[in-house]
Amino acid sequence: MAFELKEEGFRLKDILLVLGMPEATYHYHVRNFGREDSDIELKEIITDLFKKFHERYGYKRITKELKKLGHQINHKKVYRIMRELGLKCVKFMRKSRKYNSYKGKVGKVAKNRLTRRFSTPIPLQKLVTDITEFKCLGEEKLYLNPILDLYNGEIIAYEIKKRPTLDLVMEPLKETLEIIKNRASFRTTIHSDQGWHYQHNKWVRALKENKVFQSMSRKATCADNASMENFFGILKQEMYYGEELVSYEELKSRIEEYIHWYNHERSKEKLAGLSPVEYRTQSSQSAA
Hints:
Layout: H1 2-7, H2 12-19, H3 23-31, H4 33-52, H5 59-68, H6 75-85, E1 126-129, E2 132-135, E3 141-149, E4 154-161, H7 167-183, E5 189-192, H8 196-199, H9 201-209, E6 213-216, H10 226-239, H11 248-264, H12 276-287
Parallel strand pairs: 1-5, 5-6
Antiparallel strand pairs: 1-3, 2-3, 3-4
Helix pairs in contact: 5-6, 7-9
């Protein structure tokens, strides 16, 4: 551009004076012209990734996804671009009341075998479970009971119902016991709170008959089951808080979709950027 101006007999300084553009600004744009052009493509990729992950990923996770695609980029630049584009997670608005299933000692209260040791290198060795409540449109409520493997954070079974009946916990337990039977290489421990479901004779007997250790949090001590509480927090922040209330059936469908996405696609830093299922699959292939 500067060369063409010179050939025509105009001085760059005079043109910039007429345009009201500082010379330093002109040289900055000339120097960064190619880089700005590449940023346009990068912005499109970042926008596509943000939409792909349902607007649930912040700049750190987007940076990891970019690196998976072969882009060597600093997280600070991703933060700057996302801020410029207005790409920000905003699903942190409404809080829901915590469901409390404790009704005193109505059955067997097991000791705390887990004692806040929430990690294990062995699949299906340590499982945690709990019940959480969602408010739906109108007067309806939804209750979710998942069972999570502390090995990779995977939800291996779950049940959703309109009421917190005993079946809410027994159905996913039956499914989990089949998985344990077919895949577990070490004796399993299932940890819960002291809710009446987990004190119930059917729950206790099912664990004993399948040689599964039972473990319980101390009374009114949420931190003893922090991994399960953490999952509930992530789930509600990413697909429930800040959204309009919907019917029971619609919310049930959204939760089912989210849990599948969480297991198969949502990357976790402590799993080397893999999703829970990817981590389990790669680990089993390496061991084979």
